[in-house]
Amino acid sequence: MTTLPPSGRIDGPVLLTARWVVGHRDGRHVILDDGVVVFEGDRVVFVGHDYPGAVAARIDYGNAILSPGFVDLDALSDLDTTVLAFDNQPSWRKGRVWPRSYMERAYEMYTQEELAFQKRYAFAQLIRNGVTTALPIASLFYRAWGETDAEFSAAADAAHELGLRVYLGPAYRTGNSYVDDDGRIAFFYDEERGFRSFADSLAFAERIEGLASPLVRAMLAPDRIETCTPDLVRRTADAGRDLDIPVRQHCCQSDLEFTRITATYGMTPLEWLDSLGALDERVLLPHGELVAGTRHVDRPGRDLDILKNAGATLVHCPLVSARHGGFMDSFSKFRAMGVRIGLGTDTWPPDVIQNMQVGVMISRVMDGSIDSVRSEHYFDAATLGGADALRRPDLGRLQAGAKADIIVIDMGHDRIGHVIDPIQTLMMASSGRDVTDVVIDGRFVMVDGQIPGFDATAGQARAQRQFDGLVARYPERTYGHPPVGEIFSSAYPRLGRNA
Ligand SMILES: [Zn+2]
C-alpha cells in the first residue's frame, strides 16, 4: 500500500477500492460491488465504478466494506464506570448515587492530567471502532460537580491531534440526587452553582464555534433531566437556538428521572421539556426507553405526539439499555411514526457494530417479530440518523460532496465465515475489531489497526491503573462506606494463592 506522509494526508485525489462500497444515491444507501471511492482534500469527489480521472494514490482494501464512518451521538468518553453496574445492584448501594456524607465534600477524583488522558484514550477507542463523529458522554459520579473547560480544552486538542470529528460540551447541572442517611433517594439543588457551570459551558461553546475548526464543534450537554431546574432547561434551549448548536438532554432512561419529573411537575419528562419550549430539531434525547404510550410507562401522556412533532432525535443506545434490562418500545414503531433515531455507544465497548447487533435482536424480541427490523434500519440509524440529527447532510453517507469520513471493515478474515450480504453479515458475524482503517476529514487517522501517535498497549495499561485507582475510592462515595470487596461482587469465589 501507499506509504503515508506523517500528516496522514495525501495531496491530490485518492482512490480507494474494496469488494463492497456503501455509497449513497437518491437519498439512500446503495451497495456497489467492487466499488470505488475517490476523495480529494476533505471531500469525497466520486463514488461509483469507473473513475475517469488521474489520481495521486490508489489503495485496494480487497475483501472489505468501504463504509461511511459511524456517527455516535452518546459517545463513551471516559473509563466507563457503568460496567460496574452490570452485576452490582442496586445502584444507590454501589456508589452510583452519592450518600449525603459524600455530597457535602465531593471532589474531583481524577487529576486534570487523568481527565485529559481518559478523553484522549476514549477518542482513540472510538476511532478504532469506526466512529468518525462523536458527541462525548461521561459520568459525573466521580466529579466534584460538572465537567470543566480545562478538560474539554484538552479534549479539543486530543480530537485535533488524533483527527476525530467531535461536538464537545462540558456537562452541567443545577442539582443532584443523593441517598439520605435513612437510605432514601433525595434531591439537592444549587442553582447558583449550576448557572455558573452553565455559563462556563456556554463560554466554551462560543469559543469552540469561533475557532471554525473543521473537526471540533460545540454542543450543550446538560446532565440527566432530574438534575436540571426549569430555568436551566430554558436557558439551555435559548442558548442552543442562539448558537444554533446541538443540545443533548438525557431524559428517557431511568425510573428515577421519570418519577422525579412526574412527581414534581405532574408531567412526563417529554411533556415537561415541551412545556418549557426546550424541544426542537437541534435536540438529542438519550435513550427513548421511558416514553408514555409505550409498554414501559403506566401513565397516559402526549409523549408520542411530542416526539412526532418536535423533530428531536432519540439517541438509541442498545447495548447499555439491554444490559440494564430495558429497551426502546420499539425501534420499529418509532421509525414507522417518523421519529428520528440515531445511535450512541454510551458504555464499554464503544462498538457501534455490537450495538447494532444487539439492537436488531432485542428490537425483534420487543416486537415479537422477525421482520419488523432489518439490518439496514440500524445501519441507517448509525450513519444517516446521526448525521441528520446534527443537520449535517455532508456526514454519514458516501457521495460526491460529502466529507471524506470513511471506514474500512475487513470481511476477509476466516472468523467472519461466509458472507451472505455485507450489511447482513455485519449484523451477525462482525465486530468493531474488524475496523482496520479510518479516514476522517480526508486524513488517514488509523491505518491497518494503528493510530499514529497512540500506543494502544501503553494506553490500556495506564487506563487499568487509573481505573483501579478510582475503584479503590468507591467506599468514599458509597452509602454506608463499605469496603470495595463488599460493593462489587465477583462472578465466582476468588481464590488467592493461599486460599
Ligand atoms: Zn444515559
From TrEMBL:
UniProt xrefs under InterPro entries: Amidohydro-rel, Metal-dep_hydrolase_composite, Metal_Hydrolase, MTA/SAH_deaminase
NCBIfam families referenced in this protein's UniProt entry, alphabetically: PRK06151.1
Domain Amidohydrolase-related: 93-445
Family: Belongs to the metallo-dependent hydrolases superfamily. ATZ/TRZ family.
Protein name: Ethylammeline chlorohydrolase
Keywords in alphabetical order: Hydrolase
Gene3D superfamilies to which the protein is assigned, alphabetical: Metal-dependent hydrolases, Urease, subunit C, domain 1
